[in-house]
Amino acid sequence: MNISLSSASLTEKEKKIIEEIFNSKRLALGPYIKRFEDKIKGYFKVKHAVAVNSGTSALHLILRALDVKENDGMIVTPFTFISSSNVALFENAHPIFIDIDPFNYNIDLNKIKKSLNDTNHPLFKRINKLKDIRFFMGVDIFGQPIDWDKAIAICNENKWKIIEDSCEAIGSEYKNKYVGTFGEAGTFAFYPNKQITTGEGGVIITNDDEIAKLSRSMANQGRGDSNEWLEHVRLGYNYRMDELSAGLGYVQMQRLEYILKKRNNVAQNYFDLFKNDEKIVLPKIEEYTTNMSWFVFVIRLSLNWIDKFVKIPEDIINFNLPLYISEQERDNWKNLLNKIKKVTYAIIEELNKRGVQSKNYFSPVHLQKFYRELYGYEEGDYPVTELISSLTIAIPFYTDIKFEEQEYVVKTIQKILDEFEK
Ligand SMILES: Cc1ncc(COP(=O)(O)O)c(C=O)c1O
Predict the structure, then answer these.
(1) In this structure, what CATH number is given to the domain that contains residue 304?
(2) How far is CA 94 from CA 29, 91, 399, in A?
(3) What is the pLDDT of residue 247?
């Protein structure tokens, strides 16, 4: 068997729309853009939806619409896809990373104040031109909402504007309210590994007229209300969604409920198939998550199991970790992470060899090459993120995966772990 990590769910309905648009020859700025946006607006009961060409563009436009300035700070998790923080760099602003919760993998809201009040925190050594923290980028990682009540209280206290990166979480609900609707504006992304797809694409949702107006204008080369093709009233980009993508999105939105339900079943199957397997830690769904929109299925190797091959101190096994690793301990920390990663990567390699496509999700953003070069980040700056990231494996997960395929995935993983012990 060869089972891919992800795969879009496409039917004859999508094919028909593509054919219709193909025949119309109206490939840009056509009627499906508005139809798609109206579907999104109706589903999320928001005033505005602005369709764009990617989730990254959507996040960038919101920051621009909120008048981001050079050397502004933006609170964000380092355990995310890179664009959550890159959009700050686009504008010479600074991502202010805060470490994550070791169980739900979202930003640890309890660490924000602690980190910012600790003048020895590496983040102050790394970022020396910070003017003012003005934004909070809330990422609902892998589809799981952050604790929005808590996040909103912190943001209000600090007067931070909230941008919601719900790119991985379309349809997830926090206390029965859709994610994407908690901040000034929210985003969803539609790359083919996402719950629903438009090929490439993204959307901004907001109830704020000004954000909607500015985003729409900037996505369209800064054109103003007149919509004259060669009249540009502000600096803009070409971030428009094309008509074929919008047509796809229009149909996929009609199928969203069905798709989310099927994905939920797939996730449930994995929970059943992995039941009582103590070598693996399964995703933790918080009680406040009243509906989970599954983006990926990420399992983690248990530290107790890895401890059989790599000696791990008790505190680390229990995720009893400091805000950052002290200078004296950094070499030990790096060595330990490298040893753990070696085990995880060997397992991922073996899975891929046996036809179970898997990937390490995510690699910490602060340790990406250009973040290291730009800011000087290193291992030990965000220990929970680094440790979790050394253990996580995204396994095949998509709407139309068959139960037999899931059985094969689980059996193969269990077999490889057994073999590893010998
Ligand atoms: C958390 C998160 N933010 C932003 C994005 C960016 O979306 P896109 O790839 O459409 O630019 C993604 C997509 O992978 C994502 O997972």
Answers:
(1) 3.90.1150.10
(2) 34, 9, 37
(3) 98
Element at 292 (helix H, strand E):
none
Same domain for 120 and 46: yes
* Cβ pair 55, 239 in contact under 8 A: no
Q: Are residues 101 and 214 part of one domain?
A: yes
- Say how many Å lie between the CA of residue 80 and the centre of ligand 1: 9
Q: What local confidence, expressed as pLDDT, does residue 168 receive?
A: 98
- Among protein residues, the one whose CA lies closest to atom 7 of ligand 1: 55
3: in domain: no
pLDDT (tens digit, 9 = 90+) per residue, 292-322? 999 999 999 999 999 999 999 999 999 999 9
* Alpha carbons 128 and 247: distance in angstroms, whole number: 46
Residue 285 is part of which domain span?
Answer: 257-421
Which residue minimizes the CA distance to atom 5 of ligand 1? 55
* Binding-site residues, ligand 1, Cβ < 6 A: 54-56, 80-81, 83-84, 139, 165, 167-168, 189, 191, 202
Of 6, 52, 54, 56, the one to substitute when testing ligand 1's pocket (max ligand atoms within 8 A of C-beta) is 56
Number of structural domains, the chain?
A: 2
State the distance from the centre of ligand 1 to the C-alpha of 83, rounded, in angstroms.
6
Taking only the tens place, the pLDDT of each residue in 174-206 is 999 999 999 999 999 999 999 999 999 999 999
Residue 23 has a pLDDT of 98
pTM, two decimals, is 0.97
166 CA to middle of ligand 1, Å? 9
Query: Tokens 């990617």 map to which residue?
Result: 54
Contact 343, 327 (CB under 8 A): no
